């Protein structure tokens, strides 16, 4: 990704993104928001790939 794209998405190289199922055939990657906050409260380990 270009620096311009990273800046537009407000993400930085090396950040962990959460894969979120958004429909039966698609997913999105999250970096901020309520779903990310909830994932941080999760007691079980969430695998990192």
Would you kindly provide a written description of the structure presented here, covering whatever features stand out?
This protein is of the alpha+beta class. It has a domain at 16-49. Helices cover 31% and strands 16% of the residues. It has two helices and two strands, in the order αββα. The chain has helices at residues 3-9, 34-41, and strands spanning 18-21, 27-30. It has a two-stranded antiparallel sheet with strand order 1-2. The longest helix has 8 residues, at 34-41.
Summarize the structure.
With 49 residues, the protein is an alpha+beta fold. The protein has a domain of 34 residues.
Q: Which structural class best describes the helix and strand composition?
A: alpha+beta
Count of DSSP H/I helices: 2
Q: Report mean pLDDT, rounded to a whole number.
A: 86
> In one word, what is the shape?
globular
Helix content range of the residues, please?
25-40%
Tell me the total number of β-strands: 2
The low-confidence parts are none
Radius of gyration: 12 Å
Strand order of the largest sheet: 1-2
Strand content: 15-25%
Oligomer: single chain
């Amino acid at each position: 990704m270009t620096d311009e794209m990273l800046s537009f998405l407000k993400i930085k190289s090396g950040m962990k993104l959460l894969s979120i199922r958004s429909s039966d055939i698609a997913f999105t990657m999250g970096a901020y928001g309520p779903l990310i906050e909830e994932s941080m409260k999760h007691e079980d380990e969430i695998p990192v790939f």
